[in-house]
Design a protein that fits this description.
Length: 128
């Protein structure tokens, strides 16, 4: 695009960026979430919103670097696909860090024993 100012883009450019971003998120949701548990509309909407937001941002970034619209759209789709997966990895890393810190701060004879069930932490018992 000769002009990379988003305020001057035609509606077709915005539609291309948004469709590519949302399709990346939808493909991620279908491949990882669908069929594993009952359908949850808010989970799907969260996935689509996150992928759309990140995808549009990536589209703007790549376009500002002077890349063609096709490359920008493909980058938006890939960014939309990876958006929620990246957030999930960040969430797991934070959980692991918090679990590690809580176990380090807790002496075994003075506080609760923890066991990890998937990614949920449950108190097993209190030691007096």
């Amino acid at each position: 695009m000769p002009n990379s100012d988003p305020t001057t883009w035609p509606y077709t450019t915005w539609i291309i960026a948004l469709v590519m971003s949302l399709s990346g998120g939808l493909i991620n949701w279908i491949s990882h979430k669908a069929g594993q548990h009952p359908f949850k509309i808010f989970e799907l909407l969260g996935e689509l919103f996150t992928s759309g937001f990140v995808g549009i941002g990536i589209f703007m970034l790549v376009d500002s670097l002077g890349q063609p619209i096709g490359f920008s759209a493909a980058s938006a789709g890939i960014g939309g696909h990876m958006a929620t997966r990246f957030l999930f990895l960040v969430e797991r890393a934070i959980e692991a860090r918090l679990i590690k810190e809580s176990k380090a701060a807790c002496k075994l004879d003075e506080c609760e024993h923890y066991k990890q069930d998937g990614h949920n932490i449950k108190a097993d018992k209190v030691v007096d």
